[in-house]
From TrEMBL, chains A, B:
Alphabetic keyword roster: Cobalamin biosynthesis, Glycosyltransferase, Transferase
Designated name of the protein: Nicotinate-nucleotide--dimethylbenzimidazole phosphoribosyltransferase
GO MF: nicotinate-nucleotide-dimethylbenzimidazole phosphoribosyltransferase activity
Top-level taxon: Bacteria
Any Pfam family hit: DBI_PRT
Pathway linked to the protein: Nucleoside biosynthesis; alpha-ribazole biosynthesis; alpha-ribazole from 5,6-dimethylbenzimidazole: step 1/2
Coiled-coil residue spans: none
Biological process, per Gene Ontology: cobalamin biosynthetic process
Organism whose genome encodes this protein: Sandarakinorhabdus glacialis
Amino acid sequence: MIDEGAAWARIDALARPHRSLGMLETLAVRLAVIQQRLDPVTRPRCVVLFAADHGVTAQGVSAWPSAVTGAMVATIAAGRASSNALARAHDCALRLVDVGVAAALVGPSPDFYRAAAVGPGTADLSQGPAMTVADFDRAWAVGSDEARLAIAAGNAVLIAGEMGIGNTTSAACLTALLAGISADEAVGRGAGADDAMMSVKVAVVAAAVARVAGGDARGAIAALAGFEIAAMAGFYAAGAAAGATVLLDGYVATAAALMAERLAPGSVRNFIAGHRSAEPGHGAALAKLGLEPLLEWGMRLGEGSGALVALPLLDSAAAIIGDVALLSELGG
Amino acid sequence: MIDEGAAWARIDALARPHRSLGMLETLAVRLAVIQQRLDPVTRPRCVVLFAADHGVTAQGVSAWPSAVTGAMVATIAAGRASSNALARAHDCALRLVDVGVAAALVGPSPDFYRAAAVGPGTADLSQGPAMTVADFDRAWAVGSDEARLAIAAGNAVLIAGEMGIGNTTSAACLTALLAGISADEAVGRGAGADDAMMSVKVAVVAAAVARVAGGDARGAIAALAGFEIAAMAGFYAAGAAAGATVLLDGYVATAAALMAERLAPGSVRNFIAGHRSAEPGHGAALAKLGLEPLLEWGMRLGEGSGALVALPLLDSAAAIIGDVALLSELGG
């Protein structure tokens, strides 16, 4: 059993001045405890991008029309989005899973694409439940299957990312519900909402959360979620249950992590927060999970991008605990 | 000519929401301007570690004896130090240059080792000049040669690191002199000085800086420097002059960067600050250079370690400006 004490003892036995690498050592200890080994590994690794549409876009909560979800899915499928570029830069395999995109993917689908739509996008969460509990379970299963596939392929670090116009509205609802913050605190500009959209977004979130609060947790979550967010939650819970190291992305991803922890308590032990995004509710979500982000760079793209930027910090942490001489080995 | 405006125009034409990657985009712009290309490159890259001893250790300013410099040089030569592990993790070539280590390297020297000692360590800077101006020029030339070699080998990103017990005392003197801060502000615990050592260190720094201030700049710098710090300054200046991207490490490295900028003005245009260390004077040194650090992780090891941890952040930045579709290419 490798607990924090055992991991710190290893760090402190290495050939360098005591505690001279700050947060890098803290991260190395977390990796060692998650993986139960003093030489944690970070390769191979993969990012799975889950995409879906959101009925709540009908309320004018987003600067972008729903059709952009399909356009970005096509860009990712063509290997030309920010997430593809970052995954290539860091030797990270990439998968793209349609959990509910309204527009069909035009053209040839690449090997790394999977069609697993639960439906053509969620219902409008401002008018009633975004999805049924049965559909929530289907979307969750898509994600948990992906985690199991990734682990079976030998991946040591799992990242989930998302693409879904409107999904910061869903994330704000879920964060308000699960981290216990107000709609005002939970709502940010997402991919670029203006002031008028922000007012609508706050009102939508406040009303939706008030409508479901107090009910059964799974039902309340399903009423507010997106298909891609439910899939990410399933991915996180299954990844954690199998002992994988799970690296979180931004606000939407952390909403999924809150869901995973609520429905599969203890999952958080395997989570590492890649960054704190520019979305104002993200800090509260991370605090609820007790996680300190590695980077605070004002990133708010999604697509797993923040986690991919943080990924090589895990490589550094693994190197400085697992690949350095012990003081006791020197000068003998 | 690629100025910041041209680089931001490229960023803003990419297929993602406006300014959605925060500091990563700022870093991408800096890379593009340094390299004068909209698809900046970060490979191949190398770290050159310069090692030397310091006569000022006779004053009891360090928690470690001078002999540790030689022991750590041997550990680096054996490929087993933190810097080796981090360089391996990030596909970064490593060179080790003895610019003035008192102890001879015992055992076989690896291909990546170069013996170029200017002397067996500096004189005690508390008693008189640490080195002559002629020796300063020799050490500087060792570093500038290394930069030219690294560039000739095709390296796009250059990192310098250091090993030298006592060198945070020299760095504090240089930072006080060149950034205009007091000895109190410039002195930190280095590799682990206790309170008594700290008092001595502050007194030594204050007296040495007072002694040389007002004289000729090169003479004053030589009187306070270390051989490895002078070599780093030459490395930085020559790297910048040749157009390379120069990634800075911690406090000692930034003292060398201040020297480079003082003696070869304009060098700073090619510098990127990898991190802000736990040493209290580091922030003032970076501010004097007008640089924002990428990470603030409380690292204080030296050996190029902080720059190596930050290095893959440059890979991400290069990827998100150079390897992503333009909005104008989509949906056409």
